[in-house]
Amino acid sequence: MPFYRRTLKEKGVTPDDIQSLADLTKLPFTSKLDFRDNYPFGLMAVSMEQVVRIHSSSGTTGKPIIAPYTQHDIDIWAEVMARTLTSAGTTENDVLQNAYGYGLFTGGLGFHHGAELLGATVIPTSTGNTKRQILMIQDLGTTVITCTPSYAITLHEAAREMGVDLRDSTLRLGIHGAEPWSEKMRADIEDRLGIIAINVYGLTEVIGPGVSVECPYKCGMHIWEDHFLAEVINPETGEQLPYGEEGELVITTLTKEAQPVIRFRTRDIISLNPEPCECGRTMVRMSRLTGRSDDMLIVRGVNVFPSQIESVLLEVEGVEPHYLIIVDRQHAFKTDELEIWVEVSDEVFSDEMGKMENLEKRLRSEMDSVLGIAARIKLVEPRTIARAEGKAKRVVDRSEL
Ligand code: ADP
Ligand code: ZN
Description:
The chain contains ten helices and 22 strands. It has helices at residues 2-11, 32-37, 71-88, 106-118, 130-140, 149-161, 183-193, 306-315, 346-350, 353-371, and strands at 51-57, 65-70, 95-98, 121-123, 144-146, 173-177, 196-203, 208-214, 221-223, 228-233, 247-253, 264-270, 272-273, 285-286, 291-292, 297-299, 302-304, 319-327, 334-335, 339-344, 376-380, 395-397. The strands form five sheets. It has a nine-stranded mixed β-sheet with strand order 4-3-5-6-7-8-9-14-13, sandwiched between helices. It has a four-stranded antiparallel β-sheet with strand order 10-11-12-15. α3 packs across α4 and α8 crosses α10 (353-371).
């Protein structure tokens, strides 16, 4: 593999240097930029005949990330996904409606393989066609829904418009991830759909979904360490941090064939907890993501993560879980003005103006105390912020408005 041969040589690392886990820090990092610079197959470690599938994600900027799989990779993926679903509480008796997008995106097929291996009944609805999703839940007796957290909210809204209360349906469990969400959002989804909502994590560069997931104790996501070795580093210095400290998650794949990664910098900010869990699993747990080191906004010198803003918003009554954070990308996320558009509930909107004004004032002061900076709040009418079918877009550039 030309890429790793070159970077290891540059670092002067030879196979003899790697004797124990502690030697991991001698290895160079791999970044998203390396994927882009070596697009499309520079990180591939097998010949194309051995590749049975290629997935791709949009990537943060420019060229997409290309993810090739051998048959063995697909088998491992199915296994970690079956484990993921089991940890979340799914069994072979469940009817699982998979509303993650099928296609190039890893979400749809990743969940599909795992659910079939587990022996659950899979309904591969993919995302979108929301009314049909509601019909399927009702008519086919869906018990587990898998989709992004924002799409779970969209499902609830569509059901409400159809006069359907999902709390009365057979749904009992939701497995949500692929985008940032908060504890508040979890409570909201659980309440609206009448389910238990479980957090799941993964990324295309590593395998797709199936890197880690919560157990029913909801106290961090167990990382499948027999396949994915996790470290946390200081994103500024690259120095490895001890368990418990917050930093950037770095993953080394141990079993991948087609495109293994060495010390891949995920840009996701988390902390690791090695304590055995009450569920009996001993694999290390990662915390909910507090943000991405590259999604971070810098407002007048203060670091702000969209997830912090979401937590504040969902704390306040009369606010819907639909919002937009407006930035000036010209200045590379450094902005003097933080503007947040927030959708209000029908009830607040139809009330006399006083309620809107109070809400705005309340949000402004809450943001101020949680973020440590002032934000401009713009309350918008119900149903005016575009609904996502896949990943929600929360941060937009002013020029896109
Ligand atoms: P996937 O196909 O699994 O969504 P992508 O490569 O498109 O993979 O996106 C991966 C990124 O999505 C992660 O690096 C992380 O930033 C975000 N993500 C995935 N799962 C979660 C989650 N449960 N909570 C927060 N962010 C998540
Ligand atoms: Zn556990």
